[in-house]
Design goal:
The protein has 293 residues and is mainly alpha-helical. Helix content is 74%, strand content 0%. The protein has one domain.
Length: 293
């Protein structure tokens, strides 16, 4: 039982909202636009996305330890490789299994969506691996934030919308940016918390490259921009989708206030939880607004 709990901890369940929200909200948008909705797409996309996210988390866990980014002085939650619960090889093997399962889950989606979905799937798996691995890992070159906006926002939302409808459009692109911005809040806060430790091991995140003040303003923008962007849905006649997410604007303001008022420390783990909740609730309320449109 303890081993199972340790693996679940390694999966980082609090981060998994980042792969659930884009699929749910993209499907809700399909419903709002009165386009055909395929339930199999939702199930298979969730499976593939879960496995890619978990695989990425596992690679990050193992490689950050190997490169010295995770040590006994880290401020963040416990990591299984650094703490000796599992070996580097065990964690990397589990990551490989997850990526394989993602490809298997995604195969029926490729059959439905064709070559565009094939390349989305392949690139998603490669980028999940390359987030912390390879000659120029995204997390170590300051590109991690862009990666999240693209793959957990734009590509996820637009890809799921296309699988349902075989169509592209401005609406899923706009929605993808909204969801991607809130997903990126998590990595921005994480990198701000770890900036001093990352600098020592040459992990050049945006917080390291641009400084802590820049990182704070980045968090502020990423938190608040999706609320302002909701005006787009008002123009489209989807008023419930515009108004319902405003119910959690106070939570967004709390996250921003906390980041500006506190220096990076272990208290940022609490702020990460708040930002994960913000991402989940924003997506849920926006989806509800689409469904009742």
């Amino acid at each position: 039982m303890q081993s199972i709990k340790n693996w679940l901890m390694a999966f980082r369940p609090k981060t998994l909202t980042a792969c659930v929200v884009p699929i749910v909200v993209a499907s809700a948008l399909v419903k709002a636009l009165q386009l055909p909705l395929d339930k199999d797409v939702v199930i298979l996309a969730l499976l593939a996305s879960f496995f890619i996210q978990i695989g990425t988390n596992l690679v990050n866990d193992a490689v950050d330890f190997k490169k010295g980014a995770d040590t006994e002085t880290r401020l963040g939650p416990q990591r299984v490789t650094q703490s000796g619960l599992f070996t580097y090889k065990q964690v990397m093997l589990a990551a490989g299994i997850c990526f394989l399962l993602a490809l298997i889950s995604g195969a029926p989606l490729v059959m439905k969506g064709g070559w565009p979905i094939f390349w989305v799937g392949v690139v998603s798996v490669l980028m999940g691996y390359g987030y912390t691995m390879g000659p120029a890992p995204l997390a170590y070159t300051g590109l991690g934030d862009l990666f999240v906006i693209l793959f957990f926002g734009l590509i996820a939302v637009v890809g799921v919308f296309y699988l349902h409808t075989q169509q592209w459009g401005a609406a899923p692109l706009w929605l993808g940016l909204q969801i991607g911005f809130h997903a990126t809040v998590l990595i921005a806060i994480n990198n701000l918390r770890d900036a001093d430790q990352d600098r020592l091991v040459n992990k050049r995140t945006l917080a390291v490259r641009m400084g802590k003040n820049f990182a704070r303003y980045e968090v502020g923008f990423l938190v608040l921009a999706p609320f302002f962007m909701n005006y787009y849905w008002w123009i489209q006649g989807l008023k419930a989708a515009t108004l319902l997410p405003l119910l959690i604007l106070p939570l967004g303001l709390v996250v921003v206030k906390n980041i500006f008022q506190n220096e990076p420390s272990s208290i940022y783990n609490k702020f990460l939880g708040q930002s994960a909740l913000l991402h989940l609730l924003f997506g849920t309320l926006l989806s509800l607004g689409f469904f009742i449109a």
